[in-house]
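User: Hi! I'm working on a homework problem where we have to compare a predicted structure to a textbook description. Could you give me the structure for the chain below?
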Amino acid sequence: MPAHHHPARKKFTRFASKQPFQFGLPNVSPDLVQASDNSPAYLTRTSSLLRQQILANAPSVKIISDSVQPDVLARDAWADTDFDRKRVLFLIPDDAIGDCVGMVLFLRAFATKYPGAKIAVLNSGTASDIFATIPDITIFQLFISAKRLKTFDYLIDFSEMEGWKDIATMPVNPEEALCEAFGVPPIPLASERAPKLASGMKIGILPMASSPLRTLPPELVHETTELLAQAGFETTLILNAYQGVMKKYKDTIGSFNTPNIRVVDGFKTIGNLVSFIREQNYVVLADSGPAHITKLFQTPGIGIYSSASATVLQGRHHNLYPWQSSYKGEFCEAPCGLAKLRATTSGEIGCMGSLRLPMSELGNLPVNSDRALAERLVTENPVPCVADLVAQKDRFLAFLRQDIGI
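Assistant: Happy to help. Predicted structure tokens:
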């Protein structure tokens, strides 16, 4: 093994197929679908949907190994390696939108420092459309052939970044961390945040996050949507049909009295979501993937944060004005840093404030999903830091009016 190289932290599945094949995820743009290339073998991340749901049941597929760890450049050599005019394949550890936006921002900076490098990503999954915003990048959405793998000079395993294993429970800023790890200066940003809004301009509201800890309360969403529409803006409320709580959440928000409000249950692909955010003049959104997507285009607006810190998640990006929950209670105060709900040893699911327990008694992520609980938390009984957003709604709406000049 070459110096400064070692086996990747993530394990991959090596498989072969007797028949030609192609795969693509349903919520990824069709032009990113992959096809076989007559290679004797292919690699996919062991935890990928391709491995878990398709390969094991495909009669023409033979699983060769589930314990492949490709040879990757060691973390301590990233900053000291000259990648210019090299072919570099980045192994993507997860496809959470916010994490991948941070990776994309880093890759833009990487390409600026090494303009001769040829960049590719492997196992970008449902976030493939996010990576497609980078010019001249090669995207291996679900797998790579052994033949193509051999063409790369370096493989970089992003899962070697410090703190990545905790990202589901304690947010980090991937752009900042990766730029520092590679010794790459981040790309310059616009010097001013200056939303210039006029009647008829487009405003998007995106209130849903993957966790009840971060989804906005329906009452606040309803009043915010009405306020913006009544001010004459072309107002669109975007929900997420891929989340099981969407219908109950939508019903709780209720109908609107103002006619120029469009409600969209969700987009078919992440690419559609990216295009929507690119087209908006202003956004109001929860701490969620779309909030991170605004960084790609510096879309102005307001980001509303509950359990997670706006300072950590927005980093150096000031296109969103942060509104942070001000909750303080006996067992926690916002932002506590949690990204997802936790579970007690007896199986109770919640957070410190909702269960009235110290963090020391909430050491695990829930093993099973509980749709009924999730619905209650996003509609009837939000966790305290989210409920505080309703208690402070008049202050928030005044803050919003001031920012957009109405």
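For your comparison, note the following. The radius of gyration is 22 Å. The longest helix spans residues 97-113. Good luck with the assignment!
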